[in-house]
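user:
I keep going back and forth on a fold encoding question. Separate attempts, laid side by side, tell us more than any discussion would. Would you put together a sequence-and-structure record for a protein of your own picking? Write it directly below this note and I will take it from there.

assistant:
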Amino acid sequence: MLDCENPYDDSRKGELYYGGPMNYIRKVDGKYFMITDDTRLSKSDVEKISEIETAALEQREAVKGVPTTTQYYYMNSSNYFTALLGNKFGTNTNGTCVQAASAIMLSFYDRYVNGQFVPAAYEDIDSTGCGTTEDFHLLLQSFMGTGPCTFTGAASGLNSYLASIYFSEPTVRVKDGKHNIVFDRVSENAGRNKPGVIGMSKDYNPSCTMNHAVAAYGYRTEMNGGAMVSAAYFVHTGWKSQKLGAFAWDWFSGALYIG
C-alpha cells in the first residue's frame, strides 16, 4: 500500500504496473483511496483486499518451493534420427536448410509410412534402408527454390513435389505464428510418431543466434508446480558434422508438417 502520490501518473504510455492489489491503494490522512480513480475505500474493504493478496502470495511461494522436474518425450521411431540416418541426407549449402530438413522428414515418411514419398532413384539404400541422396536434396530445390525460403513457400513447393510423383495425400501444412503454437504442433505430432520441420529465427527471438530450420523428433519440458517453465526440442540439425541438438523452444516461430 502506498503512502505517497501515485508514482505512475506520469507514465508516458498511460499504463499501470501491476504489483498486486494493495499497490493500487494509498493512504491519505488515515483514509484509503484507489490510485486509479481516487475511489474511497472503507477499512473493511482494505482488509478483504489484503487477505486476498496474502493468500495469493502464499500460494506463489508454495509453488516456488516445488522442485523442478524434467520430462522427456520422443517419437516412437526417434532412433531413425539418432542412430539410423547417419550422413545420408543432402548437404545444407546456400541457405537451403529448409530443403535439407524437408528431405530428412520425407525420408522418414518414406521408410515408415509409404514408400512413395521418395522415388527409388533417390533413396540412399544400404543395410539400414535409410536416407536420401544429394540428388534428392537438389530435386526438392527445384520445387522449393535454390536458396532460403519461407515456410509457406516450402509447403507450396513440397505439395507440388508430391503432386509431381502422383502422390497427393497427405498434405504438407504450415504454422507460422508464435513459439507456443509451434510447441503445441510438435508435441502433438511427436505423440503420433510424426516428425516436423521447425524454423528458428533471430528476428523472432534476439537470443537465437541464427536463422535455421531443423527436423524435430521430440522435446523436453521443465515443470514447476504443474506449470511449464521452459522447454527444448530434440532435433536433427541437418549439419553433417553435428547432426543432433537440443534447442530452446522459444526460438521457433514456424512449423512445417504433414497431415
Remarks:
- Strands lie at 25-28, 31-34, 40-41, 69-74, 172-176, 196-200, 212-224, 227-236, 244-248, 252-258.
